[in-house]
Design a protein that fits this description.
The complex is a heterotrimer of chains A (186), B (522) and C (380). With 186 residues, chain A is an alpha+beta fold. Chain A is built from one helix and nine strands; from the N terminus they run αβββββββββ. Helices cover 19% and strands 37% of the residues of chain A. Classes of the chains: A alpha+beta (186), B mainly alpha (522), C alpha+beta (380).
C-alpha cells in the first residue's frame, strides 16, 4: 500500500464515520421532527393548543362532528354522552364524555385523541379537554368530563364531517404519560 | 502497463488461519461470496418451506407462528445475509483491480467487517430455537407487533445492529478506497460503472443503515426500558416507526439494486463489443436514483392513513424515479444497438436482468399509483413486484458478475453449456414462481398468510412448483462453480474479447498481490 | 368459481405437470384481474389499472421490440462490425423527456380518483371497525342501526384447516356474523385497533385501511349492488393473521331495516337472560362455543396452550384456583402479554359460560358453576 496515503485515508475514515454517527442521530431526530410535523399539520395532536383561536361565527354551514371512545387494556367503560353534533364553524361548543371504572381499585388513564380525516386536526381547536391531563378514577367511580372546542372557520368547505376519537390508555406505575409534547417520552 | 504478479513470497499463514486473519482484498472477497452463497441457500430453504406450506390450502407443515418466523427470517437473511454480502464480495474483489489499487484502504477493518457477519447470522438463526421462536413480524419489524414478541426479537435486533456495523465499515472502506487509491490518471469520470455504482451505494449505506440501527434500538428500549416511541399510550405513534423504517428501507432497495446496475453496465458493453452508451448520463442517472430514493418512502405506507397531500407527493416522487431508471434501460439497449453481440452466460443473465427488471419496474409504476395501490397494498402483487426487482436486480446481476469474473478469479473457464442451462432453468422457473403471484395479488390474496381461500389454490400450486425448480437449479450453479475452481480450460488474462478495464490486464487467476506498482491511465 | 379442495395430492400434481400454464386460459379458477367491482370507486380503480397496463404493454413492446431487433440483427453471427458511437445528446434528451410526458398522462386520472377515494364526508352510516388479535369488532356509530355492536370471528372449523374435513366453498373467508350494510348508501368506515396494527381490506369494494392502535383512520364505500363481499386482514398481526376474514353483506333497504330490528330484539333478549339461573351442562355447552371462538387460537382446543407465550389452562393455577382471579383475568386481560381484556367483547353470560367451561373442561374438575350475575357484580 502506498504509505503516503495513510493519513489521507484516516481523514476520510474519520469524516465518513462521523457522518454515519450523525445519521444514527438523525434516526432519533426523526422522532421530534415527526411531532413538529404533526404539530404543524395538527396530526395526532395531544397537548394543549397554544395557537390563537378564530371565533368568527360562520353560520352559513354546519359541520357534522362525531365522537368516538375506546379503551385500551383498561377496566373502564368510556363513551361519548352525545355521539354526534352539528356545529357552525367558529361556534364554541361543549360536550361530555363518561367514564366508569369497573375495577375495585383506583386506576389512572390518559386519553389520546385522533381525528378523521387526519387533516381536520388542525381546524379542530380544543379549548378545554380531559385529554390534557391524566385522569384518575376511584374504584367504581363514574365521571363525566367536559370537552370544549371550536371548529376553525378556515375549515375547507369539502370537509363536512369530522370524527374525534379518544382512546384511553392505562398509565403504568410511575411512567408518566407526557401530555405536553407528542414526542416519545423518555 | 505491465502485469503485476510479483514473485516474492508473501508470508501468509496457511489453512484456516489464513482465512481468519487475512487482510487481502481477494481473500476477503472470496469469504464474502461464499458466506453469501451459504446464506442464499439458507434463505432459499426457508423460501421453499414457505412455498411447501402454500402448495395447497390448509396447514400441512408449519404452525402459523412458525410460518411468520420463517417469512421474517427469509426476508432478513436474503437482504442482509445474501444480497448485500454478495455485492460487498464483488466490490472487494473487483474495485481494487478496476481502479489499479494494490488493496482496499483498510485491510484489518475489512477483515472485521466480514467476520462480524458470522455472529450476526448465528444470532438470526439461533433465534429460531429460543423459547417463543424467532420474531414473526416480517422483515419490516413493525411495532406494536414487534414489541409483543419474545426473546427472539431481541436477538434479531442485535443481529441487525451487528449487520449494520459490518456494512457501514465495509462501505467506509469502499468509499475511501475509491476516493484515495485510484491509479494516476484514473479520474472520477473514468472509473468503471461497477465502481461508480458501488461508490454511490456505499454512501447510501452509511446514510441509512445508522437510521435503521436507531429505529430498532427504539424498539428495544420500548420493549425493555419503558420508553414509548411507538406506543400511543406514552405519546408515541406506531406509524412513526414506519416512517423511520422506510426512510431507511427505500434507499435500502437501491442499495441492493445499484451495484447490479453497475455490473450490467459492464457486461452489456463487453458482449456488444462496443463502449457503454451514455457513460455520463449513467453516472447522473445512478446519482439521481439514489437521491430521489430518499423522498419516496411514503409509498410503502399508502394505506396507513396519511393525509391525501402526502399521498400525492409520494406518488409523484415515486413516478419520477421511473425517468432515470428508464434512461438506464435505454442506454443499455443503445449500447447493444449496432454492436457485435454474442450470448455467453454473463450476457444472457444481463439480458434476463433487463427483461425482468423492466417488468418489475412496470408493476412498481402501477403500485405507485395511490388509487390503484389501495387495492394491491400488502397483497401478493407486491410480493411479485419486489421479487421481480430484487431477485432479477440482485440475483441475476450477481450471476452475471460471477460468470463474467469467474475466469479472472479461478484462472479457468466455466462450463459454458451447463452455465447456459443454469440460466434458462433460472429464468423459466423464476417466472413460473413469481409471474402468477401478480394474479394472486390482483384477486386479493394478502401476503404473509400461511393458508388461503380456495380460489387462490391453482396459482399457488404453480408458484410452489416453480419455486422448487428455481431452488434446485441453484445446485447446478454450485456444481459449475466448484468444477470451475478445480479445473477447466485455462483462462486468458482477458477471456472476453470485448471487455475493457484494468481488471483484465492482470493475469488469470489474479495473483495474490496485484497493482503493487500502480498503472498509469492515459 | 373455486374448486373443491382435494386432499389427494399426487394425481392432482401429475395432472398439473401435464397441463401447467397451457391450460390457464381455459379454466375459470384462474382469475387474472381484480375481483368484480361492486362500487363506482372500485370500477374506476379497475379501469385505471387496465389503462396503466395498456400503456405499460405498449412501452414494453416498443422497448423490447427494439432490443429484440438489435439482438437478432446485430449479433456477431450476422457478420457486421461493431459501431463505436457512445453518446448522442439529442436522443438522450428525448428519452428523458418523453417518459416525463407519459408519466404526467398517467398521474392525472389517478389523482382525480384518489381525491374521490379520500372524500369520506357526508356519509349515511358510520361504522367503527376495531381490529383485535384475531377478529374484528363492528360498532354502528351513526345512522340507521346506531348502537348495534358485535364481534365477527372466523367460522371455518379447525378440522378443515387441519385437513381432517373437506374444505367448504368459502374456506377461511366466512365469519359467524357478517357486517351488514344497505345498498346505495355511503358507508364510512372508521378503523382502529385494540392491540397491533391490522388492515381492513375488501377487494371488491376497493377499500383497504390500516387499523392503528390509539388512532382512527377512515375510508368509505357505497355498494352499487347487493351481494356478499369477502376480504381479509392484510397487515401481519401475529399468528392468526391469516384467520381474521371480513365478510360484508350488502342488502336492500328493507332487509337492512329487518336486520336492525332483529339485532335490537336480540339485544333486549340478551339483557333479559342475565337474570336466568344457568345449569352446569348449559354453561359448558355455551362455554365451549365461546372458547372455540375466542380462546382456542392461543390456549388451544386441548387447553395445553403454546408455552411460553400462551400458557396452558389445563391444570393451571388460574383455572383451578380462586374464581375471582380467573374472572379478573378474563375481564381485564393481562397488560403486557397477549391476554386481552374481554370485558368489552363478551357478554356477562358468555364470560360466565367460558369461565365455567375452563374450570370444568380437560382435567380441571373444580365443579364451579358461574352465573352471569356474578360477572355483572364484578364489572361494577
Amino acid at each position: 500500500m502506498n504509505i503516503a496515503l495513510r493519513p489521507a485515508n484516516r481523514r476520510t475514515f474519520a469524516k465518513l464515520a462521523l457522518f454515519s454517527a450523525l445519521m444514527f442521530g438523525v434516526g432519533y431526530a426523526l422522532v421530534p421532527l415527526y411531532s413538529v410535523f404533526c404539530a404543524v399539520t395538527g396530526l395526532n395532536q395531544i397537548g394543549v393548543d397554544r395557537q390563537p383561536v378564530n371565533l368568527q361565527l360562520d353560520t352559513g354551514r354546519v359541520v357534522n362532528i362525531e365522537f368516538d371512545a375506546n379503551v385500551h387494556h383498561l377496566p373502564w367503560k368510556f363513551r361519548p354522552v352525545q355521539t354526534h353534533l352539528g356545529v357552525h364553524p367558529g361556534e364554541l361548543m361543549q360536550t361530555e364524555f363518561e367514564i366508569i371504572n369497573t375495577r375495585n381499585e383506583a386506576v389512572t388513564g390518559q386519553a389520546i385523541p385522533s381525528y378523521s380525516p387526519p387533516e381536520a386536526a388542525q381546524y379542530f381547536k380544543k379549548i378545554s379537554c380531559f385529554c390534557f391531563s391524566k385522569q384518575t378514577l376511584a374504584a367504581g367511580q363514574v365521571q363525566r368530563m367536559p370537552l370544549v372546542f371550536v371548529v376553525d372557520p378556515a375549515l375547507p368547505k369539502e370537509m363536512g364531517t369530522i370524527t374525534l376519537s379518544y382512546t384511553f390508555f392505562e398509565v403504568e406505575g410511575n411512567a408518566v404519560a407526557n401530555s405536553g409534547d407528542g414526542a416519545g417520552k423518555s | 502497463m505491465n502485469a503485476t504478479a510479483n514473485g516474492h513470497s508473501d508470508h501468509r499463514p496457511s489453512g484456516w488461519r489464513r482465512w481468519l486473519t487475512t487482510t487481502n482484498h481477494k481473500d476477503i472477497g472470496t469469504l464474502y461470496l461464499w458466506f453469501s452463497f451459504v446464506m442464499f441457500m439458507l434463505g432459499g430453504i426457508m423460501a421453499l418451506l414457505i412455498r411447501a406450506e402454500l402448495f395447497q390450502p390448509g396447514l400441512q407443515f408449519l404452525e402459523p407462528e412458525r410460518f411468520n418466523q420463517i417469512v421474517t427470517l427469509h426476508g432478513l437473511i436474503m437482504v442482509f445475509g445474501a444480497i448485500m454480502p454478495a455485492f460487498v464480495g464483488f466490490a472487494n474483489w473487483m474495485i481494487p483491480l478496476q481502479i489499479g489499487a494494490s488493496d482496499m484502504a483498510f485491510g484489518r477493518l475489512n477483515n472485521w467487517s466480514f467476520w462480524l457477519l458470522i455472529p450476526a447470522s448465528l444470532l438470526l438463526i439461533t433465534s429460531l430455537f429460543v423459547p417463543g421462536g424467532a420474531a414473526g413480524v416480517g422483515w419490516t419489524l413493525y411495532p406494536p407487533l414487534s414489541v409483543q414478541m419474545g426473546i427472539g426479537m431481541d436477538l434479531t435486533i442485535f443481529a441487525v445492529h451487528i449487520l449494520g456495523i459490518s456494512s457501514i465499515l465495509g462501505s467506509i472502506n469502499i468509499i475511501t478506497t475509491v476516493l484515495n487509491l485510484r491509479a494516476p490518471g484514473m479520474t472520477m469520470m473514468k472509473i468503471p460503472m461497477f465502481t461508480w455504482t458501488w461508490l454511490i451505494t456505499a454512501f447510501l449505506v452509511i446514510a441509512v443503515m445508522p437510521v435503521f440501527a436507531g429505529a430498532v434500538t427504539m424498539i428495544l428500549t420500548d420493549r425493555h426500558f419503558g420508553t414509548s416511541f411507538f406506543s400511543a399510550a406514552g405519546g408515541g405513534d406506531p406509524i412513526l416507526y414506519q416512517h423511520v423504517f422506510w426512510f431507511f428501507g427505500h434507499p435500502e432497495v437501491y442499495i441492493v439494486i445499484l451495484p447490479g446496475f453497475g455490473i450490467i453496465s459492464q457486461v452489456v458493453p463487453a458482449f456488444s463489443r462496443k463502449p457503454l452508451f451514455g457513460y455520463t448520463s449513467m453516472v447522473y442517472a445512478t446519482g439521481s436514483i439514489a437521491i430521489l430514493g430518499f423522498f419516496v418512502w411514503g409509498h410503502h405506507m399508502f394505506t396507513s392513513g396519511m393525509p391525501v397531500t402526502a399521498q400525492l407527493f409520494y406518488m409523484y416522487a415515486t413516478m419520477l424515479i421511473a425517468v432515470p431508471t428508464g434512461v438506464k434501460v435505454f442506454n443499455w439497449i443503445a449500447t447493444m444497438w449496432r454492436g457485435q453481440l454474442t450470448f455467453e452466460t454473463p450476457m444472457l443473465f444481463a439480458l434476463g436482468f433487463i427483461f425482468l427488471f423492466v417488468m418489475g419496474g412496470f408493476s412498481g409504476l402501477v403500485l405507485a399509483m395511490t388509487a390503484v395501490d389501495v387495492q394491491m397494498h400488502s397483497t401478493y402483487y407486491v410480493v411479485a413486484h419486489f421479487h421481480y426487482t430484487m431477485v432479477a436486480g440482485a440475483l441475476f446481476s450477481a450471476f452475471a458478475a460471477v460468470y463474467f469474473w469467474l475466469p479472472k478469479w479461478t484462472g479457468h473457464m466455466y462450463d459454458e453449456k451447463l452455465a447456459k442451462l443454469h440460466f434458462w432453468l433460472t429464468m423459466i422457473f423464476f417466472n413460473v414462481t413469481f409471474f402468477v403471484q401478480h394474479f394472486l395479488g390482483l384477486a386479493g390474496m394478502p401476503r404473509r398468510i400461511p393458508d388461503y381461500a380456495l380460489q387462490f389454490a391453482d396459482f399457488n400450486m404453480i408458484s410452489s412448483i416453480g419455486a422448487f425448480g428455481l431452488g434446485l437449479s441453484q445446485l447446478l450453479f454450485l456444481y459449475i462453480v466448484i468444477v470451475c475452481i478445480k479445473g477447466g480450460a485455462p483462462a486468458a488474462a482477458k477471456p472476453w474479447d470485448g471487455a475493457e478495464g484494468l481488471e483484465w490486464e492482470v493475469p488469470s487467476p489474479a495473483p495474490h498481490h496485484t497493482w503493487e506498482v500502480q498503472p498509469v491511465v492515459k | 368459481m373455486s374448486k373443491q379442495a382435494q386432499p389427494i395430492v399426487v394425481p392432482r400434481l401429475a395432472t398439473l405437470w401435464a397441463l401447467t400454464l397451457l391450460s390457464t386460459a381455459a379454466e375459470a379458477a384462474y382469475e387474472v384481474n381484480f375481483q368484480q367491482p361492486a362500487t363506482l370507486v372500485a370500477q374506476e380503480v379497475y379501469d385505471l389499472h387496465l389503462w396503466m397496463m395498456a400503456i405499460c404493454a405498449i412501452i414494453f413492446c416498443l422497448v423490447f421490440g427494439v432490443m429484440t431487433y438489435s439482438l437478432i440483427k446485430h449479433r456477431r453471427a450476422s457478420g457486421g462490425a461493431a459501431a463505436r458511437f457512445h453518446e448522442n445528446t439529442r436522443v438522450e434528451m428525448l428519452w428523458t423527456a418523453i417518459p416525463v410526458v407519459i408519466l404526467i398522462g398517467m398521474a392525472w386520472p389517478v389523482t382525480k380518483t384518489l381525491l374521490v377515494i379520500r372524500d369520506s364526508s357526508n356519509a349515511d352510516i358510520t361504522i367503527k371497525v376495531t381490529g383485535y388479535q384475531w377478529k374484528w369488532g363492528y360498532d354502528y356509530l351513526k345512522g340507521e342501526g346506531e348502537g348495534i355492536r358485535f364481534m365477527s370471528v372466523l367460522a371455518t372449523p379447525q378440522d378443515q384447516i387441519d385437513g381432517k374435513a373437506p374444505k367448504g366453498e368459502h374456506y377461511l373467508l366466512e365469519v359467524d356474523r357478517p357486517l351488514v350494510v344497505p345498498v346505495n348508501k355511503k358507508i364510512r368506515i372508521l378503523t382502529t385497533s385494540n392491540d397491533v396494527i391490522h388492515s381492513w381490506y375488501v377487494p371488491a369494494l376497493a377499500v383497504q385501511q390500516d387499523a392503528v392502535t390509539g388512532f382512527i383512520r377512515d375510508t368509505w364505500f357505497r355498494a352499487e349492488r347487493e351481494g356478499v363481499f369477502r376480504g381479509q386482514c392484510s397487515q401481519l398481526c401475529g399468528k392468526g393473521h391469516g384467520y381474521m376474514p371480513i365478510v360484508v353483506e350488502v342488502v336492500s333497504a328493507e332487509k337492512y331495516a329487518a336486520w336492525i330490528a332483529k339485532q335490537q330484539q336480540e339485544m333486549v333478549a340478551g339483557a333479559e337472560d342475565k337474570d336466568k339461573v344457568w345449569q352446569l351442562a348449559e354453561l359448558m355447552q355455551r362455554g365451549e362455543a365461546v372458547y372455540g371462538k375466542n380462546c382456542s387460537a392461543c390456549h388451544q382446543p386441548t387447553g395445553k396452550g403454546i408455552p411460553p407465550a400462551f400458557p396452558a389452562l389445563d391444570g393451571s393455577k388460574v383455572a383451578t384456583g380462586p374464581k375471582a382471579a380467573h374472572i379478573a383475568t378474563v375481564l381485564n386481560g393481562r397488560p403486557g402479554t397477549a391476554m386481552q381484556a374481554f370485558a368489552a367483547q363478551l357478554s356477562d353470560t358468555d364470560i360466565a359460560a367460558v369461565i365455567t367451561y375452563e374450570r370444568n373442561a380437560w382435567s380441571n374438575k373444580t365443579g364451579d358453576v358461574l352465573q352471569p350475575a356474578e360477572i355483572k357484580a364484578v364489572r361494577r
